[in-house]
Design a protein that fits this description.
The structure holds two protein chains of two kinds. By secondary structure, chain A is mainly α. Chain A has 14 helices and no strands. The two termini of chain A are 21 Å apart. In chain A, 40% of the residues are buried. Chain B is built from eleven helices and no strands. Chain B starts with 26 loop residues before the first helix and ends in a 6-residue tail after the last helix. The chains are: A mainly alpha, B mainly alpha. Chain A: It is found in: Cell membrane. Chain A: It is a multi-pass membrane protein. Chain A: It comes from Natrinema salsiterrestre.
Chain lengths: 333, 343
């Protein structure tokens, strides 16, 4: 029951944050010196009437708070407004592009977790030995190198020099194979997806890998020094069992938090990775929206990404509470 | 704490909260620890090197020591590019050989020289014929400047918000921290781009301010958690009892005493800033041409990947080394200040 209460508490807590995000986004998009109409008409000859007409069409002639309320009531019904540039509903545009970005971000996290956790454990277990130093240096490189540059270098090596992997685009595994020329059957499609995804996944996942590995190492070192580990040793439990069971499980808890908190870095990184690898995801859509001064679309995407982050954090927080029996619900310190 | 390891989970904040740390956070102690810690020392070397290069490029804008006078005078700009970049126009007839590092000349593109091609251009030239090496050197100024100024903006605003929230507690705390959490919930890169494009206009200045604002939450959280423990100390009680104003207590006692761990984050944050601004410039929303900025150079070289791949390597290496310096220094400082890790 306590867990259910905590879940509801966290969900309720998210509401003001989401409203806050909408206010910030709305103000940024509407209060700036560049008003939407002049941005839309950039460089074009226009008459006073045209401006008036555009203002009326998009409801820009009404006061700010009214516009905000209209926007929010639309939002509650899942209506994010109409894209000015594409002349399509913002929500439909976002839905179209959400897939590739989610695929990219999730595979980057999968890559990061699969590589970082064993490396972190090994490093902690062989503390101050060459393996530890090597993995620490690797982690240092990981947190110090821009993801887009890793992407560029990977393209230079594996696409330009060696010609092994494609340097741009992505095959969507959820589409029917027949929509791609030269692809027969699902297996071939998945293979192509994997080939296209490999480099962007590494580019985006490296920073996450390095961060997770550092935390994993510190946590493992700490948990290996714990009283219960000492006790287990005193009872003669084999070192491997201690490492795998007793020390390992406790050390994984902070990883959950890190994964959630790092989501915003990963989303920002996705914008860059999509640009480098020419993947048509949310990041590219955002850049297009910015370039076209499509403020409705920009607001929609920003809201959506903020929403994704908040949801991600809540999911990690709740799963943390489910996994760790020591968590006190409500105010955690 | 690692760079990307942001501070949403409040359980990451307790690292330096224990009371017995007080003796270990003094400035002299910190310096002594840096001297002992290999990581911190190397970080300090790299950071000192980068800052020296940046300063040197201001003092000697012709880079005469670095280039041994191999480039003619007109190949250089005169002032710090961020403030002003007057260009010396090449004399007629010579202009095609050496383009100034800031020369805004996008049309006249030719195949860039390969790296190490000539003594005059050790790293080759870019698509307009500007010497790549001098542009990389000038790029140091932009990165260091942007990193330090943005971090300072985030640090100042974050310190005030965090200190006020932590000191007063209750409703003030709730409201301030909620606002901070809202800013924190929009992915930084997205927030900065929206801010620069809709509020400011694309320029490095708005990027600097935007990056600074997105870092406010991180600093506010750290300061707040420190203040929460310092607030209960006897000397604060004493100051309050003797009638010292709240503002003075916060500025004279609370903030200075919470600053040592913040310094660690600030150092690490400079690295993050440089990373973020490089990304912004790469997308075209940070430093604008012709400013020699590393991220922006990578943006341009992206189009020349097949003809000269080295153009994409050098700026990235420069970014990596600079950020690594700040990260090493930050990590070293953290080890020095964190009583939990004993080697």
């Amino acid at each position: 029951m306590k867990l259910l209460k905590y879940t509801i508490y966290r969900l309720l807590q998210a509401i003001p944050v989401l409203i806050g995000i909408s206010v910030i986004t709305f103000l940024l998009a509407n209060l700036g010196p560049g008003d939407p109409v002049s941005l839309m008409l950039q460089g074009q000859e226009h008459s006073e009437e045209l401006v008036r007409a555009i203002e009326q069409r998009y409801g820009l002639d009404r006061p700010l708070h009214e516009r905000y309320i209209t926007y929010m009531s639309g939002l509650l019904e899942g209506d994010l407004g109409q894209s000015i540039y594409y002349q399509r509903p913002v929500s439909a545009l976002i839905l179209d592009r959400l897939g590739p970005t989610l695929l990219l971000v999730l595979s980057a996290y999968a890559f990061a977790l699969v590589t970082a956790i064993p490396l972190g454990v090994v490093a902690a277990n062989r503390r101050n030995e060459p393996t530890d130093h090597a993995s620490r240096v690797a982690a240092l490189f990981g947190v110090s190198t821009p993801s887009f540059w890793i992407g560029i270098v990977l393209i230079l090596i594996f696409a330009v020099k060696l010609g092994w992997l494609p340097s741009s685009g992505l095959y969507y595994p959820w589409r029917p194979p027949s929509s791609y020329p030269g692809i027969n059957g699902h297996l071939e499609l998945y293979y192509e997806t994997a080939r296209h995804l490999l480099l962007p996944m590494i580019a985006l996942g490296t920073l996450q890998m390095a961060t997770i590995m550092r935390v994993e190492r510190t946590q493992m070192i700490e948990s290996l020094q714990g009283e219960y580990v000492k006790l287990a040793r005193a009872y003669g439990v084999p070192e491997r069992t201690i490492l795998r069971k007793h020390a390992f499980q406790v050390a994984q808890l902070p990883i959950i938090t890190i994964v959630g908190a790092n989501l915003s870095t990963a989303i920002g990184g996705a914008v860059l990775t999509e640009t480098v690898f020419n993947i048509n995801g949310m990041g590219q859509l955002f850049i297009e929206a910015i370039q076209q001064n499509d403020y409705q679309l920009v607001m929609g995407i920003t809201m959506m990404l903020g929403f994704l982050f908040v949801v991600g954090v809540i999911i990690t927080d709740i799963s943390y509470a489910y996994v760790d029996p020591r968590v006190t619900y409500g105010e955690r310190d | 704490m690692a760079v990307g390891e942001s501070q949403l989970g409040s359980d990451t904040e307790s690292a330096v909260d224990e009371g017995d740390v007080e003796a270990r956070v003094g400035w002299r102690y910190t310096l002594a620890q840096i001297k002992q810690d290999t990581t911190a020392r190397w970080g300090l070397y790299v950071v000192a090197f980068v800052i020296t290069v940046a300063t040197y490029a201001i003092v000697d804008s012709n880079l005469s020591l670095l280039t041994f006078g191999r480039l003619p005078d007109y190949a250089f700009a005169q002032a710090l590019p961020i403030f002003d970049h007057p260009t010396r126009i090449p004399p007629p007839g010579e202009g095609t050989q050496h383009m100034p590092p800031y020369f805004p000349l996008a049309e006249q593109s030719w195949n860039p020289l390969p790296a190490g091609g000539t003594i005059e251009h050790p790293l080759g030239t870019d698509h307009t014929g500007r010497d790549y090496f001098t542009r990389i050197v000038y790029g140091t100024q932009v990165s260091v400047f942007v990193g330090i100024v943005s971090t300072f903006i985030g640090l100042s605003i974050g310190t005030i918000i965090g200190a006020v929230a932590g000191y007063y507690g209750g409703k003030t705390d709730d409201i301030l921290m909620r606002v901070v959490e809202m800013i924190y919930s929009i992915p930084p890169l997205i927030l900065i781009i929206v801010f620069t494009v809709f509020v400011g206009g694309t320029s490095i200045w708005y990027a600097v301010i935007g990056v600074g604002i997105t870092f406010v939450p991180i600093f506010a959280r750290i300061i707040r958690s420190r203040v929460l423990s310092i607030r209960e100390m006897d000397y604060i009680e004493a100051a309050r009892a003797s009638g010292v104003k709240d503002r003075n207590i916060i500025m004279r006692h609370v903030v200075p005493n919470s600053f040592a761990p913040v310094l660690v984050y600030a150092t690490l944050q400079i690295g993050v800033t440089i990373l973020v601004v490089a990304g912004l410039s790469f997308l075209g929303y940070g430093a604008q041409p012709p400013t020699p900025d590393w991220g922006q150079m990578l943006n341009i070289s992206h189009g020349y990947m097949h003809s000269n791949l080295w153009l994409s390597i050098w700026p990235g290496l420069a970014i990596m080394i600079t950020i690594m310096g700040f990260n090493l220094l930050g990590d070293g400082l953290q080890d020095a200040l964190d009583p939990r890790i004993d080697d």
